[in-house]
């Protein structure tokens, strides 16, 4: 069986996580990266890899950070500088007191529909003025040129997770390259064979369990099938400057000529010392642009925001980089769709997809991690089937089945399963763990698993009395699963 490797195509975050997952399962893994270095869309140019390509926000309660912490992979994170945040509207740049008061009604918990646009639902719920601001702020979390045209559920869930939980927002210190380097080190430690400058074709695709962790367009070409989902076109401008005359940390440009938000930030992506003589500070800006808008037009609008929020920046430029990125910030869900409607992780013929635009829950990089872990596990199962019993049916060891096994071996254990209506209102945010929670209190062991389905959320519980020594030791080694679902 050791001669049957699992293949991973693509050396970005999703590809590295999938390779690590498969290697942790005991399989030999070969990772094929078409470029000269790892990182894919996560990192910047070869000349300045420490200038990450676009947004790199993570959440402390999300799949990526949990997955890293479970493995003790040390990636430094930085919190937002709230005191340096400014909102740029038609009256100028100022601390967003007025906008904060305007958005106070959004604190109340509400459920947004899937099949209605965010703009229409927000206007009916909060009024035209607040809806207009909410739609523009949606650009901060989607990088889309018209967030109000997306699904209300998609936008509302992301708004509440970011705007109402800023304490969980983090940036990767050192940019995505810090994360990529840490993942690559772990992959090599596990014995993953990394092949650079190794671009596969449909003819050279291995006849083996394979995870394709590229952009959907590239995966479609490689697999010779139609794989697509809406994304965003984003204009990016990176500027290294030689001065910092009291500039703010972040500016959200929501002036009325935009249907979205232009975000400008003094980045934590690079060590200022790394800029050397070229500049001492790094400014990065992102703006969602519509199809047909070119680099010059998109960057010109960003520069207008810089002129207002960062006066004197033009005279302090050490170097700059401008470009348009297509589908580089994950999938967006149109009205009537959810993440479950995106291209499936399982593609048949032992081929699996991973990335930020496939059918997996989460936000930005969390989609990549959730899909990569799932793809890696499915590839392991496919390899076992090929090695031991080709064609033999297998039963997926779901969290529910794991708890059923646990109940069978525990004394006085009671196993119950109930269905709670409202699965459409609940979405998992983390699928990287075992899928269940173990709690031990006052000599009683309780285990809980929840699975979202069409009829509701199916909750399975096991309750057992005091455990014998061997069983207690086994249960105590089981991983703990926290907050799998978020309303």
> What percentage of amino acids are in beta strands?
15-25%
CATH topology of the largest domain: Polyamine Oxidase, Chain A, domain 2
CATH architecture descriptor name of the largest domain: Alpha-Beta Complex
As an assembly, this protein is single chain
Helix count from the secondary structure assignment: 13
Report Rg.
24 Å
Largest sheet: 7 strands, mixed
The share of residues in helices is: 25-40%
How many beta strands in the DSSP annotation? 21
N-end to C-end Cα span? 43 Å
Supply database-style keywords.
5-stranded parallel beta sheet, 3 domains, alpha+beta, disordered C terminus, Polyamine Oxidase, Chain A, domain 2, 487 residues, single chain, 7-stranded mixed beta sheet
Describe this structure in words.
With 487 residues, the protein is α+β, with helices and mostly antiparallel strands. It has helices at residues 13-24, 63-70, 97-102, 118-126, 128-137, 139-142, 152-163, 176-189, 216-223, 295-309, 365-388, 399-409, 469-476; strands at 6-9, 29-32, 57-59, 77-78, 85-89, 92-94, 169-172, 193-195, 210-212, 233-241, 250-253, 262-266, 281-288, 317-326, 351-353, 414-420, 427-428, 436-441, 444-453, 456-464, 485-486. It folds into three domains: 6-76 and 173-229 and 334-386, FAD/NAD(P)-binding domain, CATH 3.50.50; 79-171 and 233-326, Polyamine Oxidase, Chain A, domain 2 (Alpha-Beta Complex); 399-486, no CATH class. The chain has a seven-stranded mixed sheet with strand order 6-5-11-12-13-10-14. Strands 8-2-1-9-15 form a five-stranded parallel sheet, covered by helices on one side. A hairpin with a 2-residue loop joins strand 5 (85-89) and strand 6. The longest helix is centred in the C-terminal third of the chain and has 24 residues, at 365-388. The radius of gyration is 24 Å and the shape is globular. It starts with 5 loop residues before the first strand and ends with a strand.
């Amino acid at each position: 069986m050791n001669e049957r490797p699992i293949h991973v195509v693509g050396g970005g975050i999703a590809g590295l996580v999938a390779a690590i997952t498969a290697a942790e399962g005991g399989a030999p893994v070969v990772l094929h990266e078409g470029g000269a270095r790892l990182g894919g869309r996560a990192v910047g140019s070869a000349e300045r890899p420490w200038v990450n390509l676009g947004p790199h926000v993570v959440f402390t309660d999300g799949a990526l950070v949990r997955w890293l912490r479970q493995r003790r992979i040390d990636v430094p994170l930085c919190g937002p500088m709230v005191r340096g945040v400014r909102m740029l509207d038609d009256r100028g740049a100022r601390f967003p007191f007025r906008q904060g008061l305007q958005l106070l009604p959004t604190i109340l918990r509400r459920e947004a529909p899937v099949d209605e646009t965010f703009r229409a639902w927000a206007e009916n719920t909060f009024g035209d003025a607040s809806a207009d601001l909410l739609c523009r702020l949606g650009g901060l979390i989607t990088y889309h040129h018209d967030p109000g045209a997306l699904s209300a559920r998609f936008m509302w869930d992301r708004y509440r997770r970011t705007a109402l939980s800023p304490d969980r927002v983090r940036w990767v210190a050192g940019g995505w390259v810090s994360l990529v380097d840490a993942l690559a080190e772990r992959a090599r430690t596990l014995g993953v064979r990394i092949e650079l400058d190794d671009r596969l074709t449909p003819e050279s695709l291995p006849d083996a369990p394979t995870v394709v962790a590229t952009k959907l367009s590239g995966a479609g070409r490689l697999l010779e099938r139609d794989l697509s989902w809406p994304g965003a076109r984003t204009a990016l401008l990176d500027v290294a400057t030689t001065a910092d005359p009291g500039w703010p940390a972040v500016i959200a440009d929501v002036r009325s000529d935009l249907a979205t938000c232009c975000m400008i930030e003094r980045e934590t992506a690079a060590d200022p010392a790394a800029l050397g003589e070229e500049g001492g500070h790094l400014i990065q800006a992102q703006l969602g642009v519509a199809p047909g808008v070119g680099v010059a037009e998109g960057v010109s609008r960003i520069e207008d925001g810089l002129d207002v929020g960062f006066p004197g920046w033009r005279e302090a430029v050490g170097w700059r980089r401008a470009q348009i990125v297509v589908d580089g910030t994950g999938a967006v869900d149109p009205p009537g769709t959810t993440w479950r409607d995106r291209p499936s992780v399982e593609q048949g013929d032992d081929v699996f997809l991973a990335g930020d635009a496939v059918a997996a829950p989460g936000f930005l990089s969390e989609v990549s991690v959730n899909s990569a872990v799932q793809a890696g596990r499915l590839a392991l199962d496919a390899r076992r089937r090929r090695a031991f019993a080709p064609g033999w049916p297998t039963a997926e060891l779901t969290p529910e089945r794991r708890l059923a096994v646990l109940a069978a071996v525990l004394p006085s254990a009671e196993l119950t399963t109930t269905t709670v209506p409202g699965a459409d209102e609940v979405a998992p945010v983390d699928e990287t763990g075992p899928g269940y929670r173990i709690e031990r209190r006052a000599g009683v062991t309780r285990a809980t698993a929840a699975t979202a389905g069409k009829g509701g959320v199916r909750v399975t519980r096991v309750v057992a009395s005091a455990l014998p020594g061997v069983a207690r030791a086994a249960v105590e080694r089981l991983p703990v699963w926290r907050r799998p679902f978020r309303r």
